[in-house]
Every structure is written in structure tokens, then in C-alpha cells.
């Protein structure tokens, strides 16, 4: 590189060599920087791409070569740049007449300062914080729009007035003292409770700085910047809320109830009272959520929350644990049994029909109860106990409550034993089918029988189906067992028909998993075929939860069963989410009113109304009603009064082994038996039944 070349490369002056047409032949690095382009890019540009009003400029400089010309250049980033052009024309050996150009920016000092001030003002005007310029008397000399936004004072109202930042924690002359005490360049910052024009107090974070320059009269100046913290405080409150409350229902959450429970525990420990935790889980919520959709599911949870709140006293706390689980703290009861009243009241409240979208649903919950100090001294254990009791309640059917008992700790162990033994039960002949009659409420005659599974285990004794059916369901064993029960039941009914009781039907319970089998209908048809039983004498009991699970497929299955002549009964109706529109939609022949309603006859007014409503409604839809769990003559009287056709329960007969059933049928045409039940009330004790 020769020295001339070196000079051009390193010159601070921006230099261009251009043809008379304005095409750039060469550019030094300073010119490239100024124009914001690479050398090659510049060389490829048409003159109009880098020079504004190019033809006029070219003609001016061609005529008056030594004059400096003010021009506007286009830079690579699309901006315009004001510059001065100095030109010298010469003859180039290769390019002919060329112009050497020296470029310099035009930027006066004044304009730069102006620009900066304008930028600063823009920034201040757009700040979220209020900014004011104060004199030593704290009078406002200037303010930004945020000041008006935050305080409500307009510029006209505020200018010349003292800044008001008084609050309860700071004395009247605080601000003046503060300003007097600040040296130039020093500052003070703190939180204050300030007041808006409308009178409302708001928290503000204030920062005051003493400027190191005075005004033209020599007065000291200060800048105060302050931020309205009310949004932050609201945010903090919101965070606090989220930490302790459930956003969907507005109920307390688990954290809050634990805190409250601890306080309550300390209080009751002093005065010798009791504390109860109720763990509540809605029955069949998953099904309702899946079939109604999540929005209605959420709505249901909110209704449940309201009902729970209304079922307890003001000092008790209702919390949502998550999903469809709720925890209720009864913070001062005189005895554990009081919790049972509350549980009953909750069930009553939940059971009142509810309209969701175009559906009417009844809700029930399973409730587990555990008490302090009886069940545990420790809250975590108490909650676990209540949870365990809730599971127990669930297994007993829907809409029940169960108190925690220490034996339940053995529950996990018990379940494991069941699981281990169950798969051998069938091959060891430990499973039996018992039969419980249905009776015509008016005539007392037996109209049919329900097959109820029994497990007489060598190792575990008599195990309740409420205990082992869920396990069989979980493991899939229910499919095999269920088919076996079906076959047994059909055979037994055939035998009874052969003995002359050919008006009887048999009802078989189907679990959810059985009902979901794709070959269910074929399986039933095959069993009917093999046993020679007419489908018209078979009834299948399913629960509402099963019905709601997969509405479309369910309807197909039900129609196929109908084609076989097989009747379908809705078992345990009134627990879960009894939806009246479902009754209308699905071909259902029988409806079995759950025992928990029958239990309320004749005492509970709510149950009475609901039972009566269910009976009337079903009848109007042509569905036959069977009342489950009828135990007293009084209950029978009411059922008859309401035209409930059929009943089942200990009043008439316990579930019986096939032989006992045959004996009953051949010896008694009419039930109940009165006082002669002795020999029949002998079903083996069920170990695990509550
Ligand atoms: P479920 O179908 O609702 O049967 C009625 C239950 O109530 C039976 O209990 C019966 O013994 C009992 N019960 C009947 N009358 C009275 C009464 O007056 N008072 C009282 N306290 N109880 C009464 P069980 O036999 O223990 O069966 C419990 C549940 O187990 C059944 O409820 C049914 O859901 C299920 N289950 C029984 N057998 C089978 C089966 O073969 N397959 C399937 N999938 N489930 C079955
Ligand atoms: Mg049943
Ligand atoms: Mg039932």
C-alpha cells in the first residue's frame, strides 16, 4: 500500500470518488461508515440511492466546483443525513471526468442540545412515575403528566403549590426539613402514604434528590419522583389471596385451612372441646365433568362450594383441597357425634336438585370424618385419617359418611390381602351368588331376584362385594367373575322357572368395566342361549355414572340389549349425578331409588320430597321404580302411598343362598314374614362391612 492509499484508508475525512453521473467509483472507510454501507454496496448504487435530489446537486456542483453544497444523503439503514459536500473535478485516466468529494456531517451544537433536551422531555412525559421539580419551599416548578394521573391535580392547579406528601407517619413540616437537610447531589427515598386530590390515600415510593445546580435566582432545586404503589399493593394482596384461597370457588385452600386448623387446635386444647375434619369427595364427579363439559363441571363445583358454606356455621371453614375434594373444619364441637349432624346436613343440601345447562342433577358426596383429640393429636395425621375414612365411605356406596376408626390403618394391608387372594377365589370355589327378592309393595308377592356376589374366603372370612368388587374392577378380574355371576344367575332363574315360578326375573349387577366391553351384548346373548333363558327375564343393573361415561356408545349398547329383550335398571339412583334428562334419553326399564333416600323415610322432609319426586317422575316416564334397602313397615307404608311398585330390603328378606331362596319361595307366598324370619336372617357376618 503506497502512502497515498494509506492516507485515504486512514483519513478521518469521508472521501468519495464519483463519475459525472454520480456513480461511486471509490469510497474510503470513513465514507463507508458515514453512509452505513460496504464499499462494494456503494459502488453498485445508482446516484438516486445515496444522494437526495441527485440531478440538481450534480448540476450545481458541475457549474460551481469549489462551492460547498449542503445535501441530504441516504444511509444504508434508510435514514437521512444532512451533510456538506466539497468537490474537486479532475480527469481520470480510466474513468474520464471524475469528482473527488469530501463529506462532512452538518450538526450544530445547538441542534444537538435541543435534540437531547427533547428526548429527555419525551422520556419524562412518558414515565409511569410522577416527577416534579421543587424549590426549597417544596413548591412545584414543573411536573410531568404522570403527576396529574397519580394525584389528580392538573398542571394549572399544581404549579407554584407546595407538594403534598403528608402521611400519618411523617410530621407536618417533614418535607421542608428534609429538603433543608439535603446537600447538593444527595437524596432521600422512602414509602409514604400520600393523598390524591379526591381525598383517597395511596401508598407511594418517593425519591427526592437535591440538584447540584440552582435556578437563575440562585434558589436550590430538587427533583421528587414518586411511584404509586397501590397497584403493587393490590398485586401483593392478590398474591396473598392466591396463596390462601381457591380461585374457582373462593373457598379457603389447603394452606389456609391447615393454618386455621392449627389455631383451632390450640384453642380447643385449652377448653377441652373437640375439632373435626371432614374430608369430602363428590361421587362420580369425573363422569359429570366428562359428560357435561368442564365449564359446567366448574359451575357445579361452585354450587357445591356455596352449599357447603351454607351447611356449616360461620366460624367453620370450608376449603377446596383440589379437584372435587373438599375439607371442612368444624372448629369447636362438644362431641364427635356433632360432626355427624353436619355431615348429614351437607348431604341434604347437596342432594337438592340443581339445574346445569339443560340438565338437572343431584349431587352426593362421600365424607370421611376424623376428630381431634380422639383420633390424633396431629393435624396431618388427622387429615390422612379423614381421607382414609372417606375412601371407606366411598366403597360403601354413594352419599355416605364414615368416622375414622383405628382399624382403617390396617386398611392398606387388608386391601393388599384382598388383592393377593382374590384372583384365586374363583378357582377355589370361594365365590357364591346370593339372591335377594324384589317384592310387589301392594301384594307382597316376589316379583324377581337380584344376584349379589359373595366371597367366602378361607383366609379372610366373608368379604363384602363393596370391598372386593372395586378391586376386581381395577385388576380386570371382574370381567371373568361378572360373566360367571351372569351365568349362575341365569341358571338359577331357569331352575326357579322350572319349579313353576316362571313370572320371576333376575337382576345382575354390571360394573363399569363390564359395561364397557365391546362384546358385552354378544356375551349376554351367548349366556342366554346356553342357559335357555328368555332375555325378557333378565335385568342388568348399572349405575348412573356408567350411563354418563360415554353417552354415544352407551346408547348403542342399551338399544342392542333392548333388542334382546333385556331390561336395564339404574342402580343407586339419587346418588351420583342423577340427571332427569338422561332418564328420558336412554331406554331404561327400572329405577332403583338408593337406600340413603329410603333411610330418610319418614323422618327427613328433604328425602321425602325427593323420593316422592323421583317416584312420580319415573312413573310419568313409564319407568318402574324399585325402592332399595327397605327395612321398616313404616317405609313400606309410605312407598305404597306414593305408588312405588316394588321394594327390596331386609324387611322382606336378606340376600339368600339359592337353597334358602327356594325354601322361602315354596313356603311363603307373601312377604314380609312378620315374626318368623329367624331362620332366614342368617346371612354370614361380613367382616369388613361397616
Ligand atoms: P347394590 O347392587 O345396590 O345392592 C344392594 C346392596 O344393599 C346389597 O349389598 C344388599 O345386601 C344391601 N341391602 C339390601 N337390602 C338392604 C337393607 O334393607 N338394609 C341394608 N343395610 N342393606 C341392604 P351387597 O350385597 O353387600 O352388595 C353391595 C354392592 O356390591 C351392590 O350394591 C353392588 O353394587 C355390588 N355387587 C354385588 N354383587 C355384584 C356383582 O355380581 N357384580 C358387580 N359388578 N357388583 C356387585
Ligand atoms: Mg344392584
Ligand atoms: Mg343399589
How is this structure best described in words?
By secondary structure, this protein is of the alpha+beta class. The chain is built from 26 helices and 26 strands. Strands 18-19-21-22-23-24-25-26 form an eight-stranded mixed barrel, surrounded by four helices. Strands 2-1-5-4-3 form a five-stranded antiparallel beta sheet. The chain has a five-stranded antiparallel beta sheet with strand order 7-6-10-9-8. The longest helix has 22 residues. The C terminus is likely disordered. The protein folds into four domains: 109 residues, PAS domain (Beta-Lactamase, 2-Layer Sandwich); 110 residues, 2-Layer Sandwich (Beta-Lactamase), CATH 3.30.450.20; 161 residues, 2-Layer Sandwich (Alpha-Beta Plaits); 244 residues, TIM Barrel, CATH 3.20.20.450. α12 crosses α13 and α15 packs across α16. The radius of gyration is 44 Å and the shape is elongated. The structure holds ligand C2E and magnesium ion (2 copies). The site of ligand C2E has 24 residues, from β19, α16, α17 and β23.
Amino acid at each position: 500500500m503506497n502512502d497515498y492509499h494509506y492516507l485515504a484508508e486512514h483519513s478521518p475525512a469521508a472521501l468519495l470518488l464519483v463519475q459525472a453521473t454520480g456513480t461511486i467509483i471509490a469510497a474510503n472507510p470513513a465514507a463507508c461508515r458515514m453512509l452505513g454501507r460496504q464499499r462494494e454496496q456503494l459502488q453498485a448504487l445508482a446516484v438516486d440511492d445515496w444522494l437526495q435530489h441527485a440531478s440538481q446537486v450534480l448540476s450545481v456542483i458541475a457549474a460551481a466546483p469549489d462551492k460547498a453544497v449542503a445535501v441530504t444523503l441516504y444511509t444504508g439503514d434508510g435514514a437521512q443525513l444532512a451533510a456538506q459536500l466539497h468537490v474537486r473535478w479532475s480527469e481520470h485516466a480510466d474513468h474520464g471526468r471524475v469528482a473527488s468529494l469530501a463529506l462532512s456531517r452538518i450538526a450544530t451544537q445547538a441542534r444537538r442540545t435541543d435534540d437531547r433536551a427533547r428526548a429527555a422531555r419525551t422520556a419524562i412525559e412518558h414515565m409511569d412515575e410522577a416527577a416534579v421539580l421543587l424549590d426549597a419551599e417544596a413548591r412545584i416548578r414543573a411536573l410531568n403528566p404522570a403527576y396529574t394521573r397519580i394525584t389528580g391535580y392538573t398542571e394549572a392547579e399544581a404549579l407554584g403549590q407546595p407538594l403534598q406528601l403528608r402521611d400519618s407517619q411523617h410530621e407536618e413540616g417533614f418535607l421542608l426539613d428534609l429538603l433543608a437537610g439535603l446537600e447538593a447531589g444527595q437524596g432521600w427515598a422512602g414509602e409514604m402514604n400520600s393523598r390524591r386530590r379526591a381525598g383517597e390515600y395511596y401508598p407511594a415510593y418517593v425519591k427526592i434528590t437535591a440538584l447540584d445546580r440552582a435556578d437563575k435566582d440562585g434558589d436550590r432545586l430538587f427533583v421528587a419522583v414518586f411511584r404509586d404503589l397501590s397497584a403493587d399493593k393490590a398485586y401483593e394482596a392478590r398474591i396473598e389471596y392466591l396463596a390462601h384461597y381457591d380461585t374457582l370457588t373462593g373457598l379457603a385452600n389447603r394452606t389456609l385451612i391447615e393454618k386455621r386448623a392449627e389455631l383451632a387446635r390450640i384453642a380447643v386444647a385449652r377448653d377441652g372441646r373437640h375439632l373435626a375434619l371432614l374430608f369430602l369427595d363428590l361421587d362420580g364427579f369425573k363422569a359429570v365433568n366428562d359428560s357435561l363439559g368442564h365449564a359446567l363441571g366448574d359451575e357445579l363445583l361452585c354450587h357445591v362450594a356455596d352449599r357447603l358454606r351454607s351447611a356449616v356455621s360461620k366460624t367453620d371453614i370450608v376449603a377446596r383441597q383440589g379437584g372435587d375434594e373438599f375439607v371442612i373444619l368444624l372448629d369447636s364441637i362438644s362431641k364427635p357425634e356433632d360432626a355427624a349432624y353436619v355431615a348429614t346436613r351437607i348431604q341434604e343440601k347437596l342432594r337438592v336438585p340443581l339445574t346445569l345447562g339443560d340438565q338437572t342433577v343431584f349431587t352426593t358426596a362421600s365424607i370421611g370424618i376424623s376428630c381431634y383429640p380422639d383420633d390424633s393429636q396431629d393435624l396431618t395425621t388427622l387429615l390422612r385419617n379423614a381421607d382414609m375414612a372417606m375412601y371407606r365411605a366411598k366403597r360403601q356406596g354413594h352419599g355416605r359418611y364414615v368416622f375414622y376408626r383405628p382399624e382403617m390403618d390396617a386398611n392398606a394391608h387388608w386391601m393388599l390381602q384382598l388383592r393377593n387372594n382374590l384372583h384365586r377365589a374363583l378357582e377355589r370355589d370361594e365365590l357364591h351368588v346370593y339372591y335377594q327378592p324384589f317384592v310387589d309393595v301392594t301384594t307382597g308377592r316376589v316379583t324377581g331376584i337380584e344376584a349379589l356376589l359373595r366371597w367366602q374366603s378361607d383366609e379372610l372370612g366373608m368379604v363384602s362385594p363393596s370391598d372386593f368388587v372395586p378391586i376386581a374392577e381395577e385388576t380386570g378380574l371382574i370381567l371373568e367373575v361378572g360373566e360367571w355371576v351372569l351365568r349362575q344367575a341365569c341358571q338359577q332363574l331357569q331352575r326357579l322357572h322350572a319349579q313353576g315360578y316362571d313370572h320371576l326375573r333376575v337382576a345382575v349387577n354390571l360394573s363399569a368395566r363390564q359395561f364397557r366391553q365391546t362384546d358385552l351384548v354378544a356375551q349376554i346373548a351367548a349366556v342366554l342361549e346356553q342357559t335357555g333363558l328368555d332375555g325378557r327375564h333378565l335385568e342388568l343393573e348399572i349405575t348412573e355414572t356408567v350411563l354418563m361415561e360415554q353417552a354415544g356408545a352407551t346408547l348403542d349398547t342399551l338399544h342392542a340389549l333392548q333388542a334382546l329383550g333385556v331390561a336395564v335398571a339404574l342402580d343407586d339412583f339419587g346418588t351420583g349425578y342423577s340427571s332427569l334428562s338422561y332418564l328420558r334419553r336412554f331406554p331404561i326399564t327400572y329405577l332403583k331409588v338408593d337406600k340413603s333416600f329410603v333411610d330418610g323415610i319418614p323422618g327427613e322432609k328433604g328425602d321425602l320430597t325427593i323420593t316422592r319426586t323421583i317416584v312420580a317422575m319415573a312413573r310419568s316416564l313409564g319407568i318402574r321404580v324399585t325402592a332399595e334397602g327397605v327395612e321398616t313397615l313404616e317405609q313400606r307404608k309410605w312407598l305404597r302411598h306414593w305408588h312405588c311398585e316394588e321394594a327390596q330390603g331386609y324387611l322382606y328378606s336378606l340376600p339368600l343362598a339359592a337353597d334358602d331362596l327356594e325354601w322361602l319361595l315354596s313356603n311363603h307366598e307373601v312377604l314380609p314374614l312378620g315374626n318368623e324370619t329367624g331362620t332366614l336372617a342368617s346371612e354370614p357376618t361380613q367382616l369388613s362391612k361397616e
